[in-house]
Structures are given as structure tokens and as C-alpha cells.
Amino acid sequence: MKKNIALITGGLGFIGSTLAKTLIKRKIVSNCILLDNFGSFINPLKTNYNDYRQRRIISDKRFIIERGDASNSQIVLNLFKKYKPTLVYHTAALPLAKIENLNATEASIGSIDATKNLIENLNFVRSLTKNYSIKRFVYFSSSMIYGDFKIKNIHENIEANPKEIYGTMKYAGEVITKGLCNYYNIPYTTIRPSAVYGPTDMNQRVSQIFIEKAIKEEKILIQGKDEKLDFTYIKDLVDGVILASLKKNGVNNTFNITNGKGRSLLEFTKILKKYFPKLNYKITSRDNFRPKRGTLSILKASKLLGYKPKYSIEKGIKEYLSYLKEINFY
Ligand SMILES: NC(=O)c1ccc[n+]([C@@H]2O[C@H](COP(=O)([O-])OP(=O)(O)OC[C@H]3O[C@@H](n4cnc5c(N)ncnc54)[C@H](O)[C@@H]3O)[C@@H](O)[C@H]2O)c1
124 lies in a domain? Predict the structure, then answer.
């Protein structure tokens, strides 16, 4: 196979590593360069902290792990010179809206500094290198850029209106991606995922917390009786990202890639109760910090890319639990 290389920033992360394994498995690329600063945003001293990173990437010469920060110009310049990746997936960023001591400076490193650094150096190395063509720069944004969902099915043309730090920085990264890629004539795609869940997530998002609490027979606190999220199984997200990054229709476009159906935290809990009948939960008031969310429209991705998610939360939870059983989590 001709060398066809993908650079994945945040390649040891939950999404980045799953994407890398899928690109290799489907023979879309011959190698994946995984640039990662080995960072973590969760307090490792928490009693329920699990580090799944050793399970994410197996030792295999098709995966090349490069330690470093994606905002570091020297590191990124050297990587582009050395590997000349044709696909760049930029997932590296502070990945959560609510964490201890969050501030705009820290949240801007991955979303702003790294985004402009990657695009600038990509353009520079391309200009020096004969026959180096870049197929796509993919920026990972978030549904948090919409702020409160004001309509039933949030589509991509709804104006961004982030209401907290994380969503604001994610949106700034979108603007940088669009502006710089247009200026340098680099084909780009922006992905807006939401509530991604599945094997090896270790960022203590609501799905991981609920599943682990159900297993440990600890009480689940549901913040908001009607609180809905568009829970997206990791495999569906990766399918959508790959379609968006390879299809012509994905060029210079933005896509919601989710399940396309908001489901309540209560529904999620009730599905878990079928597996863990002793599960106990309590409904408390919603956390006003978070934007009011629900369903993201995936009509655009479905029409332009042929994206079709396969995992309802029933199916996703089943597969996630089988994985946890397989690794003797319970
Ligand atoms: N998981 C979700 O539900 C979700 C939803 C919407 C958007 N996203 C976005 O998807 C991306 C990936 O999220 P994830 O869930 O895989 O998170 P993750 O924490 O599992 O992965 C992020 C990885 O990036 C690395 N990293 C962070 N900053 C870096 C930097 N400056 N340089 C190099 N490496 C860096 C971390 O070490 C980590 O391995 C993020 O940009 C996040 O904002 C995720």
C-alpha cells in the first residue's frame, strides 16, 4: 500500500484513538501519527478514577505515538515535515465544559493556539514540498457552541451562541479553521459532536458516571427530570467523521454528527435498571450552568454524506457493558 498518513492530534484520547484504530482497520491510511501531550483533565485522586489509556492503542508500528503539545510550533512543524500527512484530525483540546479551575486561557490552548499552529505549519510545509497535497483538515468542535437549544432540532445554520468558556473556545476554533483554511486554500471540515459515550471514555461524563454507578450499586443523581442529551455512540461518531473527511461534500462544510435524537437522562437510567435491577436513582434540579440541550439535526450529514447512525442508546449501552465485562470491570 502506498503510504497514506493521518495525523491525529489528541490521538491517545477517547475519540482520537478510536478514530485511529478505525482508519487503520478499514485501510483508509497506512499509518496514524498520534500527537498527544499525555494530559488529563480529571483529578486522578478521585476514588472512581480509571485510566483506560493503556487499553486504547496496542503496540503496532502502524500507530506512531509522538509526545508533544499541538500548540507547540516546533513540534508541529517537525511532524508535518517528517510525515506529510494527507489527513489531519484535530481532536486535541480540553474536552469538557465543567472541570475544576477551568479558565479561558487553558481552554484556548487546544481550540485556538493549536488550531492556528496546525493550519499555519501545514500551509508552510506544503508550500515547501513538491507534490504534497492535503486532503482534509478536520476540526473537532462541539454542540456546546449552540448554547441553549432554542428549537427542537438544532441544525448547523442556527447561529452559534455559546454560554460558557468551553463552548466559546470551541467556537473560536471553528472561526479560525474556516478563516485560515479559506485563506490558505486548505480543504477543511468541522464536526460538532455531542455526548459521545462508549468503551474507554475516562472523562467522567454523565454516561460513564451513570454506568459505573449502576455497576457499583451507587445512587445515581439525575440533574433535571426532563434533561435530554443527544447521546452518541463512539462508533457512530467515528463513522460520521470518516465520511465527512473523505467525501467531497464534506469539503469546507460543518456537520452535526450525533445520534440525531435527544433522550432524557431518566430514560438512560431506566435502560440501565434493566441490567441492574437494584439501581437506585434520585431526581434533583437541573444544573443551570449547562445549556439546555436536546436533539441535533443530522439531516445535513445524512443528505450530503449518507451518514446513518446505527446505535440507539439501548444498543450502545449493551455494547458498552459487554466491553466492561470483557475487561473484568464487573
Ligand atoms: N467526548 C465528547 O462527548 C465530545 C463532545 C463534543 C466535542 N468533543 C471534542 O472532541 C475532542 C476529543 O474529545 P475526547 O472525548 O476524545 O477527549 P479526551 O480527553 O479523551 O482526548 C483528548 C486528548 O487530547 C490530548 N490533548 C489535550 N490537549 C492537547 C494539546 N494541547 N496537545 C496535544 N494533546 C492534547 C489529551 O492528552 C487527550 O489524550 C475534543 O476536542 C472535544 O472538545 C468531545
Answer: yes
